[in-house]
Amino acid sequence: MTTTLILPSLLLIIGLALLVWSSDVFIDGAASTATHMKISPLIIGVVVLGFGTSMPEIIVAILAALEGSPSLAIGNAIGSNIANIGLVLGITALITPVIVKSSILKRELPVLLAISFGVYLLVLDGNLGMWDGVILLIVLVTVMTWMIRSNKALDPSDPLAQETAHEMEEIADLSQKKALIYLIGGLIILMISARMMVSGAVEIAQFFEVPEVVIGLTIIAIGTSLPELAAAIAAARKNEADLIIGNIVGSNLFNILAVLAVPALLAPSLLEPEILNIDMPFMLALTVAMLLLALSKSGEAKINRLRGFLLSLAFLSYLYMLYLRSTGSL
User: Fold this and answer.
1) What's the structural domain count of the chain?
2) What's the CATH number where 102 sits?
3) Domain encompassing residue 287
4) Confidence (pTM)
5) Residues 294-328: pLDDT tens digits?
6) Interatomic CA distance for residues 287 and 285, integer angstroms
């Protein structure tokens, strides 16, 4: 490695490590703060955990857009959704089969697919503009309102309700003051680490003459999906399968609506043809696959190790395709 790459590589690696750690601190602080405010554990699970696990993507998107690299932000949003299904769900299912029982998830999964397809149609003209961002945020608020109401009416015996409540109990019991310190401190470190990641990634992309969108789809997307992977593996060890799918659904909704809205509002731009012709269709295909795997007429669906392997293989194949694309071989 030449000396030219040492600093950006260090920025990327250290930034990534800090990002994963600070994301966890931020989520603990946010969840504890919400608990002190007497907010329902289910609402905390939907809003705080869903928003919290997507906070790295949101901050990276903001910084990338402000620095004139909207393609990095766009790639991050789409790539993170691909990584959440192919990498996170795939690896988790390899560790232990994921059995989906929750009724609410079986309502939210089709909603995720419908919204993902709707967003694809929205940007099919190749332009990600300010009004697209406004529409995305309106849809986000609408969906979050629906999810909160649905969870309020959820049967306490529903597996997702039980697993979410259990997860809330395990979050560090922080005092109100300490929770605020975790919340604010975690957010500050998140911003610093995201800034390091973006700077390092942009310099590496420029050095190798790799399109920024490819860096966003790969290194940045995988990096910002690591909190979801850590949460999924932890949930798998506790047999909280519905929570795994729930976190992925929530994170993907935030990514496709909130994260993608950031470059639309801050740095409107044209989408690269590959985004529309390859990346978004692949994201939709994986979302369809997750929906089919998680739904069952018997009321219980099992994503076994073979299916986890196939999801992981699909993700690796996608990465290889991106490699070919970046080298001009595709």
Assistant:
1) 1
2) 1.20.1420.30
3) 3-326
4) 0.88
5) 776 655 567 888 999 999 999 999 999 998 888 87
6) 5
